[in-house]
Amino acid sequence: MKTLDRYLFMEMIGPFMIGVVGFVLVLAVDLLFTMADLIINKGVPLWAVLKLLVYKLPSIMVLTFPVSTLFATAMALGRLSKDNEIVALRTSGITLFRISVPILIIGIAVSVASYFTNEKLVPHANFVSSNIIRQIIYKQPLPEVKENIFFKDAHNRHYYARRVDMKNKTMENIMVYEVTDERFPRVILAERATFQGRLWDLKQGVIHKYDEKGYLNYEAAFEDMKLNVSEDLLNFSEQKTYQDMDSRELKDTITMLDKGGVSSHAFKTELLLKYSIPATCFVFALIGIPFSLPSPRSGRTWGMIVTIVFMFTFYVFASVFRSLGRGGLLPPAVAAFFPQFSFILFGAALLYWEGNFK
Length: 358
What we know:
358 residues, alpha+beta, six-stranded antiparallel sheet, 6 strands
């Protein structure tokens, strides 16, 4: 590692750690304020709130990584610009692109750390925190209406329902994916159903069977069909949503839904977001470089203000595309990666302009 790389790394590591700790504390305090009423007026134990806070930390940290990368970039380059070190480096023949290399490497490293945190820690932590909120804080063992229910019983049957109303005991858009001794499973689809204990009454459905090559060789429609399941649906009170799944679980769910002919846009979008969201750290490092340098005319650094504007613009942009992908209005790959890709192109263009024309 060259002296310049070590120097810029040391300039960034301190502000980055301060940013992570500071933003985590801000978001954690906001969460504690939200829970204060539960502690004071509803008698929720303090240990439950503290436990919830611990399990919320991984998802909070993933949110702080991109902003902290941006903060570190702006602080490091702002300090070097203030002391005329950037001018000295560029005057001595070191280009802005060479100065940017260690910053971009740090952005990539933080993106990798964000990916592993988002993949290994966040799904389980979200699942546990959701159960804490529901069971301990709000004392609701099961919400009345749930979306995208997916579970597996002890007899190798997989069940999916787009919507489940526990109060009225009804379901919509049901798929039963049954693994048998044959190479491909039997799939049962139904528009709606009612359930009572272990007995499901499926309405307006179809049964699919496949041959050894995977081609459909049997199809039978039905108006009404009784189905005995191995366990009462009420016992599936802790099923995971796509926010609680890691990549492997999402891929398994997508495979099952695709084979059953059920739309998997939401799950495919969430799977690709597992890769695109961590890349935001690199995006913010790239965008932060040109805006953290002083204007040639005024000598002032307006980068922090402008970059904050771009940060909020990016998050609004990404949220809109995420919703469009979940709803099937955009291909999942476009919904997940287009915001990052477009801002990378924009940041690269700004960096090129700054390095060659200023």
